[in-house]
Amino acid sequence: MPHRITDECVACGSCTDECPVEAITEGEDIYVIDAEKCTDCGNCAEVCPSDAIEVDE
């Protein structure tokens, strides 16, 4: 299952460099994960300082 970024995102951008498939982009207020590209590796969630990334069920 792909991951998603919640409203807890502080838009720091630390997750973008960790995504091996470039599925994360800067949105209007928070970063966004493209579910079609996400491979569920979890790298982004590991580096998120605000724990704003979770599995999208």
Structural description of this entry:
- This protein is mostly beta strands.
- The longest helix is centred in the last third of the chain and has 5 residues, at 43-47.
- A hairpin with a 4-residue loop joins strand 2 and strand 3 (31-33).
- The chain contains 1 helix and 4 strands; from the N terminus they run βββαβ.
- It has one domain (3-55): 2-Layer Sandwich (Alpha-Beta Plaits).
- The strands form 2 sheets. The chain has a two-stranded antiparallel ribbon. Strands 2-3 form a two-stranded antiparallel ribbon.
What are the key terms here?
57 residues; mainly beta; Alpha-Beta Plaits; two-stranded antiparallel sheet; 1 helix; 4 strands; 9% helix; globular
